[in-house]
Amino acid sequence: MTVVKIREPKLMKELPETAWEEAFDEEDASVRSVCVDGGAAVSDGRVILDGAWFRKTDFRGFRAPASELMDVVFDGCDLSNADFSRSSLHRCEFRGAKLTGAVFSESMLRDVRFTNCAGRYSSFNFSKLRNVAFDNCELESADFVDCSMKAVAFGQNRLDDISFLDTDLDGIDLTRTEFSRITVTPSKLAGCKVTREQAIGFARTFGLVVEED
């Protein structure tokens, strides 16, 4: 099992609770140093989220490409189909979040943790992941195409139909994940840690005939 050290979000000990409408500063399109409990988040462009805790906040369809997220916790939030493409995420946590169809493509993720998240059809294509962990997440049909990954941990996750096409998997440990079908680039699979059963599955994917004992 690969252990990745991830720095936690730096939050104030006591954050004032407020609604998105009150927390959102229209002048610089930011939310800073608050706890938003419930309600719906609304945006049509780049935002800055800094030192904020969102609890069961509705981010469905949230459009915020090229945004900056630093020291942010999404706790039980629904981010289905949210667009954070071309964004920077630093010291962020997603806890029990719904990420169905969420887009993080062409982004930089550093010190980010995803725990107990539903991330079917999510997209991380062309992103850079540094010190990132996924644990107990559903990532079926997610896309990690042409990503750069360093110190990325995949714990007990469901990865069926996930795509790592053109992504170098050297140093990536998949032994605790579950999948029956996965897309990879054979030349970029060297150094990836898998179980014997998973290795047989890969061999069959590449068209090899595996003789059973």
TrEMBL record:
Organism superkingdom: Bacteria
InterPro entries: 5peptide_repeat (IPR001646), PA_immunity-related (IPR052949)
Species this chain originates from: Bhargavaea cecembensis DSE10
Protein name, UniProt field: Pentapeptide repeat-containing protein
Xref: Gene3D superfamilies: E3 ubiquitin-protein ligase SopA (2.160.20.80)
PANTHER family listed in its UniProt record: ANTIBIOTIC RESISTANCE PROTEIN MCBG (PTHR42999), PENTAPEPTIDE REPEAT-CONTAINING PROTEIN (PTHR42999:SF1)
